Amino acid sequence: MIRPNKKVGFILPMPRERSTLRSRRAIALSEGGFTLVELLIATGITVIIVVMLGWMLGSLMSSATHTTQRVDAFRDARAALQMMERDLSNLIRTQWTPDPFSSPTPTPGTAQPLTVPTAYFALDNTLYADPAAGNQQLYALVAARTTGSSGDVCAVGYYCRWDTDQNGSRGRYTLRRFFRALTLSDMQGFGTYAGESVLYTPGLSDPVLAAYVWNLKITMYDSGGAVITQNSYICDPNASTPNPLPAAIEISFNAMSPDAARTVMSISNVSAADWMNAALVPIPSPTPNYQGLILPHTYQFRTRINF
Would you kindly state where each structural domain of the chain is located, as residue ranges? Predict the structure, then answer.
């Protein structure tokens, strides 16, 4: 439709009632809606935000799980180390109770409770037959605090035992505590000497101090602070050249939380050698089981005990 222009004398086109130039966007906005493109963009942004929030939540949950596992491993390991410290703080340094060489010297002729010469401190890795190399074993005689007899002692020991299921296909290491109460008459019944193989007899019934513990290491130091490098070290007064009691020892081991250990144990082909892979000298190439299942969940604990 056109109309005349009276001022200029020519005819101008009249605008249509609904211009074909009016965009779909204007129509959508006038009707209170969105275009398909806008909806797709908004949906994409929403998906990205949801994925980022899910990733952040998963990361937080993973971190919380990791922290919980560390707390579980730390609790059991700390309790085991405290028991070791308590036991070894009562180590028998002399085979006489009371010591006849102390001052004042007991009255001559007075009967003295006497335990026979013994291996009162033993770093001996042969008393328990470990299927894999690397774990060490520590044994000692400690004073019995719960008895009235001054000659009573206790033989204690710490070692890692390889435990398997009924089929023998799945296994784990546990930290065991050997304990044996010995009266004065028991000690005298050993004869003239009680060696480590007589005093310390670890067995399957030894209680578990901490589950999922392996790579038990004992580092000994002399009075000058130097490391004692002997793999087998027996403080034995019956020896021709007795070894002196170390001035200090450092105890360390690896531990794993129960949740992580159950994942490892669900794999049937994980062996004792896999658990002890990093403990071998020289260190071999990591096994796939150690690298993928054990190492990521391993925590190390240590303590030092001065004698």
Answer: 61-102+120-306
